[in-house]
Amino acid sequence: MDYTKVLPEEDFDTVISALSIHHLDNAQKENLFIKIYNMLPEKGILVNYDQFCADTPAMNDWFNSYWESQLYSGGLTERDIELWKERRKLDKECSVEAEIQMLNRCGFSEVKCIYSYHKFSVIVAVK
Q: Rounded to 5 degrees, what are φ and ψ at 19?
């Protein structure tokens, strides 16, 4: 199912996403968050575990360098790393702070980053 076009019509108390939304541009992200907000009941929860860029270019370069060094030291072949670099071209990361602002604009009453490690973070938003 392409969640940018339609969401399931069942009732949900919680929506959880993992390593997916960072492939959308910011306008698509915000539209998706509006759809999720509208489908959730009062006090419903969105949990997004995803990949983010840092707020500043220097910090983002450090995040990316750290991540790439982990790949090289993890035993991947050169071919695997080249394929990873090609897939990275599809990423449209925003910062954690930018996503929190989007979620607030969509109407979520509480939004918090509850975990963060370099490029990866978990954001929880409560309707």
A: 50, 50
Q: Residue 7: CB partners within 8 Å, gap ≥ 6?
A: 1, 35, 36, 39
**Which pLDDT tens digit goes with each residue over 26-72?**
999 999 999 999 999 999 999 999 999 999 999 999 999 999 899 88
- Give the DSSP per-residue string, 57-125: HHHHHHHHHHHHHHHHHTT--HHHHHHHHHHHTT----BHHHHHHHHHHTT-SEEEEEEEETTEEEEEE
DSSP 13: S
Average pLDDT, the chain: 95
Catalogue all structural domains in the chain, each as residue range(s) with its CATH number. Answer: 14-126 (3.40.50.150)
pTM, rounded to two decimals: 0.92
Q: Backbone phi, then psi, for 3, in 5-degree steps?
A: -70, -5
97-114 burial code (b ≥16 CB/10 A, e <16) = eebbebbeebebeebeee
